[in-house]
Each structure stands twice: as C-alpha cells, then as structure tokens.
Write a structure and sequence with these properties.
The protein is mostly helical. It contains 20 helices and no strands. The model is unreliable at 1-17 (pLDDT under 50).
C-alpha cells in the first residue's frame, strides 16, 4: 500500500478537513494527552516541593535526582522514537510501545506518591531517583509513539493545527483538572508538607492515567494497524547504522531551529514550573484553595486556545502565529511580580490579588498553548520535508528529539530552581510566616530575568524556521510523484 494512499483506509470522516470532529479517531488521538497532562502536572509543579517538604531531601539534591531522571529520559526518547519508526507488527508501528506504557506508567506513578516502605534519610533520594526514572521511561513509551501518529493520520497543513489544538486542550484539562482538585481537596487542604494529600493524589492520578492511555490506544488501534509498514526494521545488531540514520534525519535545517528552540525553552519551563508552588504560596501568599481558584480560571484557557490556534494558524501561518502568541504570554508573565515588589499590587493573599493574578495566568496560558500547538504542527511538517531528502519517514524520531531537547535542558532548569530555593534560603520554609520581604525580592530577582530572557532568545531563533503552507504542499506533491513512479516501477 502506498503511503499517500493511506487516507482511504481511515475511519469515516477522517479526511474531512473542515469537520474533523466527526471522526472518532480525532477524539481518541487527543485523549491520549490527558495522561501526559497529569504526569506533567506532578513533575512540573508538585514533585520538587514534595521531595523537599515531605521526603526531607534538600532542594539541590532533589533537583539533582530529578535532573538525572530527565537526562535519562531525554536519551531514551531518541532511541525509542527511532525504534517505533521502524517497527513492524500487526498492531502497527506505534502501539506495541503504547501498550507497554499502559502497564508501567500507572504503577510507577502510584508508587512515587505512595512509598511501599518507610523511607529514611539515606533511602529517600534513591527512591525518588528510581521512581522518577521509571515514570519518565513509561511516559516515553506512550507519549512519543502516540503523538507521532499525527503525520500519518493527517496530511493537510491546516488540519494538523486542529488535531494538535485538541490534543493540547485535553492535555491541559487533564493536568489542570487534577491540579484544581488537588489544591482544593488533597495536598492543598492537608498542607504542602503532609504525606496524606500526596497519597490520594498519586492514587487518583494513576487511575486517570490508565484510563486515558487505554482509551487512546484502543481507539487509534485500527487506523494505526492500516498504516503501511516501514521499509526497514530496527536492527539491534547494526546499531552503528541505526545511529547514522538518526544523525541523517536530524540534520534537517528546519528541525534544527525547532530543536534549539526546545533546548532554550526547556530550561526556562523547567525552572518556572518547579518554582510555581513556591511562588504562589510564598511570594503571593495564596492558600491551597486559592491556588485551586486560579486553576478554575485556567479551565477557560484551553477552550479559548482550541478556537484561536487553528484560526490564527490559517490566517498568519504557523511560525508567525507561534511567535505572536509566545511574545504576548512572556510580556504578561512578570507584571504581577514587578507590581508586587513596587507596592502597586493588591494586598498579598487577598481575593482581589487572586482574581487579578488568575486573569493574568489565564491569558498567558492561552498564549503558551497556541504557541505549543503551532510548534508541534510545524514539527509534523518537518516529517515530509525530511522524507523528500531521505526517503524515510522519521516522525517518531523528530517528536522524540524535540522532546529530548526540552527534557535534557529542562533538567538544567530544575537544577536552577532547586538552587534558587537554596540560595534564597527557602529549604527550611514551612509556612508563609517564615518568608521575609528580602527573600521575596531575591526570589523574583533570581528567577524573572533568567526566565523571560531565555524565552526572548528562543522566540528569535524560531524565526529561522522556513516551512510554510506552500513549501509543505510542494513536499506533498514531490512525495506523491515519487510514490506514483515507485508503484509504476514495481508493476
């Protein structure tokens, strides 16, 4: 079966560009992001503070353990992505890995927040490291093959934006949904330094992850199995050749700019998300239930982005839309901090402060989601651009490599966050009463310039990406021509 002829094998409505909502696979593909959103919420916002205040690990040591796990994850992404590109099975290229993730991820996520034995000062760090490595490996097994289904499922330049808008939307609802409940009823209610709230969070999260992976994997199974198998299989005995193929694919110039963008943003995001609960709790003086209210505001962001992203992408193109959305978000981000330090922000911990802060966050998140949708969709377009040059599809590798870059340097961001916690003197902080104005000023001084500066550099670099709608359509035409002549030659 030819690759470009694959669309005829999709379920009803799969090639209906104007109404992808009629295609069940559209919803199954998007639903897989719920699992990633829940895991991302735990690792981005909760795990550092859980490690320091419950497990009793100093900030810099906890950050080091999480960075090691992330570095391992970053390396394993490349190999598993390439492996899934070259897998032949009756389940398709991606699903054997996705089903493996279904087994490993819920169990390891539960174990992280529900240790089966009492941890001591000597064992806590090793337990954190081991469970973090297991979880990150399991996420790679599911998320990389799952998101890499898109270039085979959807060929149209603009429709890819729609599919990825849904995936980002459901991922945010999964992560933000459990975050709101967690802050209102579990960790936020019990206290950031109390184990019981984290135990409930881990149990609920593991269950939701399992359901998300199961629904997405089964729902995308039939069209995935119909995708033409790869011309070559992964050869463990010829690993040098496999690494040379990885290197050949990664030399694509358009991929390079997405890669370096992810390197820089990974460091910024790792630092920001690891410090999030420190900032909202100890800088802005919000309680757990108040933090949950901010999460309720953020529920509007994915819905807004779901409408805005495809429309903006169609009118401005993917690159311009990504740059505009990210610039808007990063200009808004530091304003509440700066106004607080200048004395112009409402009283810390009050509801007026909370409402204004939540409105800022809601708007910023729209920008970050739209930017993420465009960048993932740009990566999908790199697949055909590379295939024209290499005669090999490498979507698993490309998505894994972009993920690799973000994770590898996000490890640095987490180390920076842990170091900031220690430098500011927050390792021993257990309540807002322990926080001084000088510590708040130090926290903002260390954090904001680094975070915003990294984003401005990354936005400048992504401007060098060159695949637009016309270039993508030309790539599709070139591949169709090659495919036609290849079939005639085989006849």
């Amino acid at each position: 079966m030819s690759r470009l002829g694959y669309l005829e094998y999709l379920p009803q409505g799969a090639s209906n560009i104007s109404r992808p909502e009629k295609n069940p696979v559209y919803w199954y593909y998007g639903s897989g992001a719920v699992a990633f959103g829940i895991k991302n919420n735990a690792f981005s916002y909760l795990l550092l503070i859980y490690s320091t205040q419950v497990l009793g690990i100093p900030g810099y040591l906890a950050a080091t353990a999480l960075a090691i796990a992330m570095a391992w994850d970053a390396f394993s992404d490349l190999l598993l992505g390439h492996w899934s590109d070259k897998t032949r099975s009756r389940l398709g290229r991606r699903h054997p890995f996705m089903y493996a993730g279904l087994i490993v991820l819920p169990i390891s996520f539960y174990a992280l927040f529900n240790p089966p034995f009492e941890l001591t000062e000597a064992t806590a760090w090793w337990y954190l490291l081991a469970t973090a490595i297991l979880i990150r490996t399991a996420v790679t097994l599911f998320e990389v093959p799952s998101v890499a289904l898109l270039p085979d499922l959807v060929k149209d330049y603009d429709e890819r934006n729609q599919w990825l808008a849904l995936r980002h939307t459901l991922g945010w609802y999964g992560g933000n949904g459990i975050h709101v409940i967690n802050m209102a009823a579990w960790v936020g209610a019990a206290g950031l330094a109390v184990q019981s709230g984290y135990s409930t969070y881990g149990s609920a999260g593991a269950f939701m992850i399992a359901v998300s992976i199961l629904i997405s994997s089964l729902g995308t199974q039939k069209p995935a199995a119909a995708i033409p198998p790869p011309a070559e299989t992964f050869r463990v005995t010829e690993m040098w050749d496999e690494f040379k193929q990885i290197a050949q694919s990664l030399t694509n110039s358009n991929f390079f700019w997405l890669f370096v963008y992810s390197l820089i943003v990974g460091a910024a995001a790792g630092m920001s998300t690891a410090l999030y609960l420190y900032n909202v709790t100890y800088f802005f003086d919000f309680s757990g239930p108040q933090i949950a209210v901010t999460g309720l505001f953020v529920f509007a962001s994915p819905a807004i982005a779901y409408v805005v992203a495809p429309t903006l992408g169609q009118r401005l193109g993917k690159k311009t839309s990504a740059i505009a959305a990210l610039l808007g978000a990063i200009f808004l981000y530091p304003i509440p901090y700066l106004l607080t330090l200048a004395g112009f922000w409402p009283t810390a911990g009050g509801w007026t402060s909370l409402i204004f802060y939540s409105l800022f966050v809601m708007t910023e998140v729209v920008g970050f989601i739209v930017g993420g949708v465009m960048l993932d969709s740009m990566m999908a377009d790199v697949v055909e651009d590379s295939e024209v040059k290499t005669n090999r599809r490498s979507e698993g590798l490309f998505y894994a490599a972009r993920s690799f870059s973000g994770k590898a340097v996000s490890a640095l961001g987490i180390v920076l966050a842990g170091s900031i916690v220690s430098l500011v003197g927050m390792d021993g902080i257990k309540s807002v009463a322990d926080m001084t104005d000088a510590m708040r000023a130090d926290l903002a001084t260390f954090f904001l310039p680094a975070y915003c500066g990294l984003y401005f550099i990354a936005i400048y670099l992504i401007s060098h990406y060159r695949i637009d709608r016309e270039a993508h359509n030309q790539n599709l035409a070139t591949l169709a021509h090659k495919n036609l002549h290849g079939n005639q030659a085989s006849d």
